[in-house]
Design a protein that fits this description.
Blueprint (H helix, E strand, L loop, with lengths): L1 H26 L14 E2 L3 E5 L11 E7 L11 E5 L5 H4 L3 E10 L7 E12 L2 H20 L5
Parallel strand pairs: 1-6
Antiparallel strand pairs: 2-4, 3-5, 5-6
Amino acid sequence: MKESVNISSSVFRIIALLFISFSVAQAVDVPPITILPPAAPLSVGETLTLDGDHSFSPVGDPLTFQWFLGSDLNPVSTQSDLTILWSDLPSDLTDVSKFTVTLTVTSHPTDGDDLSSSASDLVDVVPEPSSWLLMLSAIGLIGLWRRQLPSRE
């Protein structure tokens, strides 16, 4: 009979530990998990859409979103997804080969302070076709000029 008491008390301990663990997990503030999928390159005249919908709160708190471009501290969007139009980019971002996109997700627990987490990715900026044409033309002219030089042999 003593063995069954030990088994019963062991089961009771396991259930009590699970209950305590669950209660503590509910009481502890847990920041949201920010998931930002990799960004595709952005070409002149094109649109890039990024989706933050896979971000979540482990404890089910409501979420808000903020998207930032480059080093700008003002969010460009507060939706869960972001659509970037080439024509809407500030000139300081179109003149570089890459810029940073940052998604900050904030959870709003009912009984505590807001918690945030962020994820960033680099967006490659593809130059406009006229830039490529100019570059290829220059390479062709250099090659032609080199062919016209007399041989030094």
